[in-house]
Amino acid sequence: MDCCTKKNQYYTEEEAAEALIRSHIRFNKPALNYYFCGECTHYHLTSRQEKHPLLNQPEVIERIKKEQQSQDWSNRLRRK
Ligand SMILES: [Zn+2]
How far apart are CA 10 and CA 5, in angstroms? Predict the structure, then answer.
């Protein structure tokens, strides 16, 4: 089902949390939280809410750092 926000939809909270973490790995201005949309009954990411506590967890911060580093590496390799 589509909804008026036209944002990516996530079926479960786990999926939304995963997407939230991935947005921090990939983007300079990542989403800060996710919310449940009553219109399409799925989750969306948002940058207009307070930072999700998940993003303050040491293991999540560590994972973001590591994956950003490995992303840097593959970018460098691709440029050659
Ligand atoms: Zn929606």
Answer: 13
Q: Is residue 8 one of the residues assigned to a domain?
A: no
Assigned domain for 4 exists? no
- Cα of 4 vs centre of ligand 1, distance in Å, is 7
pTM attached to this predicted model: 0.85
Residue 43 lies in a domain: yes
What's the first-to-final CA gap in the chain, in angstroms?
A: 43
Helices and strands counted in the chain (H then E): 2, 2
Give the model's pLDDT for residue 79: 66
Q: How far is the CA of 34 from the centre of ligand 1 (A)?
A: 11
- 38 CA to middle of ligand 1, Å? 7
CA of 58 to the centre of ligand 1 (A): 30
Is position 18 within any domain?
A: yes
The pLDDT tens digits of the residues spanning 30-56 come to 999 999 999 999 999 999 999 999 999
Number of domains in the chain: 1
